[in-house]
Design a protein that fits this description.
The protein has a single domain (about 10-105), classed as Tetratricopeptide repeat domain (Serine Threonine Protein Phosphatase 5, Tetratricopeptide repeat), CATH 1.25.40. Helix content is about 80%, strand content about 0%. The protein has helices at about 1-10, 15-25, 25-45, 45-65, 65-85, 85-105.
């Protein structure tokens, strides 16, 4: 819980609400907050805020089983993190794409 609180303290309050509702399993409410946070970040030219909102929206898309949206949102986050020079979060987004792909792909037989 301490890690979650530390993470939340570094983000905008609206992104924080999106994350909180996500962890409570309230996907639609979470999506509304992430969309709102994205709009605010875009209006304020806050690419870090945009990237964080896209990461949240990608997680929600994964929970809904929508792989195309997962890829779209993570790609948008990656673009912003790359532009900001935040290679650690860029790598996190890339790893999350792989995880999402694995979760949504059919199991492989005989290593194929």
């Amino acid at each position: 819980m301490k890690a979650l609180v530390a993470c939340l303290s570094k983000r905008s309050p609206i992104n924080n609400l999106g994350m909180a509702y996500y962890y409570m399993g309230e996907v639609e409410t979470s999506a509304a907050y992430y969309e709102r946070a994205l709009k605010i970040a875009e209006d304020n030219h806050d690419e870090s805020g945009e990237a964080f909102a896209y990461m949240g929206l990608a997680s929600l898309s994964l929970a809904k089983g929508n792989l195309q949206s997962v890829l779209t949102y993570y790609s948008r986050a990656i673009e912003r993190y790359r532009k900001l020079g935040n290679y650690q979060l860029e790598a996190t987004a890339l790893a999350n794409i792989e995880t999402g792909w694995e979760q949504m792909s059919p199991p492989r037989m005989n290593g194929k």
